[in-house]
Amino acid sequence: MTDLMTTERLTLRPPRMGDAAVIAALVGDLEVSRWLTRVPHPYGLQDAWDFIRQVEAGGCNTFVICAGDLVVGCIGTERELGYWLGQNHWGRGYATEAARALIKRHFARGHAELVSGYFTENAASRNVLVKLGFVPTSQEQALCPATGDRHVLQRMVLTRNTWEARI
Hints:
By secondary structure, the chain is α+β, with helices and mostly antiparallel strands. It is built from six helices and eight strands; from the N terminus they run ββαααβββαβαββα. The strands form two sheets. The protein has a five-stranded antiparallel beta sheet with strand order 1-2-3-4-5, with helices on both faces. A three-stranded antiparallel beta sheet has the order 6-8-7. Strand 7 and strand 8 form a beta hairpin.
């Protein structure tokens, strides 16, 4: 399978070292990183370089989301479906569109399910997952590295059968 996916409006491709500055700027925004379980704040250029090196080393199923030539966010299914968009790209349906492409790829590779989650205060992320067919499974306390706060993390699951019934 290719490491390049296209949708109606987006391209998903592996991150490149040349993307580091824009990745650092977008996810380095506390309004973005405060909703994530794996991103510290501040998030700088060195963090972005380390992230890209990790993806380049292999074993990651992680992509930047591009609208035209502009990197607008990141998405992956390394352990579970995770995604973020730069704040100025919210509300355009990009997360749902990118996730649909990655979910299609995930299930085409023979997986039976895909897990994800969101902080319960993050209605936008909840809406994305619900639109995609994810259903709640459990809740747990999770630390947000960007703020140091604990939040309720709603765990979700999408099965291949549910996905295939929706497409």
